[in-house]
């Protein structure tokens, strides 16, 4: 179980956007719909840089950026059946949503007014989200993209 496990990361501490080593704990208990992954790769793009500089929205520091993430599944919640430990998953810019609104029910969660961004956001319960410049991530299974026929890392 990854709950309470120390995660190593790179974080911006202020608007200078300089990344430095940072660690935090996966404090949330793994929920039945969760996928925990060990980060293998992640990208960085202009959105990350602007957010690190607090040029879009107000940035909460320390900020662990990156929303284009590839990871290896290391733990699954009890209701996750389409993936297995060892599978490769991708995580984008959203890690959660309400699941109840018309946008969520139409599979356009990016329009959900309660969507949860991969970083610089807050999970239900108050814990800040942290991005892919970290050694591990926890996301709802809907936001861990997996295709067993085309998405393999070896």
Automatic annotation (TrEMBL):
Pfam families: ADH_N (PF08240). Keywords: Metal-binding, Oxidoreductase, Zinc. Residues 32-143 form the Alcohol dehydrogenase-like N-terminal domain. One of its GO terms (molecular function) is oxidoreductase activity, acting on the CH-OH group of donors, NAD or NADP as acceptor. InterPro entries: ADH-like_N, CAD-like, GroES-like_sf. It comes from the Eukaryota. PANTHER family: ALDEHYDE REDUCTASE. This is Alcohol dehydrogenase-like N-terminal domain-containing protein. It comes from Escallonia herrerae.
